[in-house]
Design brief:
With 253 residues, the chain is an alpha+beta fold. It is 30% helix and 27% strand.
């Protein structure tokens, strides 16, 4: 079994198990929590081994016919399929799942022993002209998807002939010692390892600062999944969040 940092394990444990556990089975745990933020009133997390955790706000639970206490509305043998059917019947939609990647303890040790790559370095405010030109050569969709910004907590880039061709940035995640990562490579420079090198460099920096690097991508993004693997990251699980815009509320459903 892959071992991850206690920081990562504690973050996801607290996020999903802070509340009333109304159902606990071998493959499914359901929790009602009154401390969830408005945009995360329902979340699902599935481990690599297939175990699913569901946490929801009381109003969402009510729409599903669930409640805290002995009369939770769930019977022994409740399954993920039954939960998802209740969500569908209630008109509650979820965004597509994200894959969550982190460095395992062993992978992080190897990362910290790696020598820096010559053409990759940290970017600073003085690099604004280079970064602006880099952004001008990328599509609006790529910029939006990657969310790489020069004013983020940490920014690294790869250079070819003095031109910035790949950049990655990180920012602290949910106020934790976890740093979420975005990366963008210009189309003409993809497939030759620039993104891998930049992710490893910025992750090395984050680890030295006491942060755990985090990389997320949609489950159907094969290129990003391959990049995560190439960079030495390990799959932690899958995460889904309620789509508030696509969900029928109890008031107007």
């Amino acid at each position: 079994m892959t071992q991850f940092s206690p920081t990562i394990e504690a973050y996801w444990h607290n996020l999903f198990l802070r509340g009333d556990v109304i159902y606990r089975g071998e493959q499914l745990t359901v929790v009602i929590s009154s401390t969830l933020p408005p945009d995360r009133r329902l979340m699902l997390r599935q481990s690599v081994g297939g175990q699913l955790w569901a946490v929801m706000a009381p109003d969402i639970a009510s729409q599903l016919g669930l409640s805290s206490g002995l009369r939770s509305g769930l019977q022994p043998g409740f399954t993920e399929a039954l939960l998802r059917q209740r969500l569908q019947d209630a008109g509650i939609r979820l965004y597509g799942a994200d894959k969550l990647f982190y460095f395992s303890a062993a992978s992080q040790q190897a990362l910290l022993q790696q020598a820096p790559v010559a053409h990759v370095r940290q970017l600073h405010a003085a690099d604004a002209p280079l970064f602006t030109r880099f952004q001008s050569r990328a599509s609006a969709q790529d910029l939006d998807d990657a969310y790489v910004e020069l004013d983020h907590w940490a920014v690294f880039g790869a250079f070819v002939d003095g031109q910035l061709v790949c950049a990655a940035s990180m920012y602290p995640w949910d106020g934790e010692q976890i740093a979420d990562t975005g990366v963008l490579t210009l189309p003409d420079y993809r497939g030759v390892g620039h993104a891998r090198n930049v992710i490893r460099a910025i992750s090395h920096y984050a680890c030295e600062q006491g942060y755990q690097p985090q990389y997320r991508c949609q489950t159907d993004n094969l290129a990003s999944t391959a990049l995560a693997r190439a960079a030495g990251l390990d799959l932690f699980g899958h995460w889904q969040v309620i789509d508030m815009a696509g969900t029928i509320s109890a008031d107007n459903g």
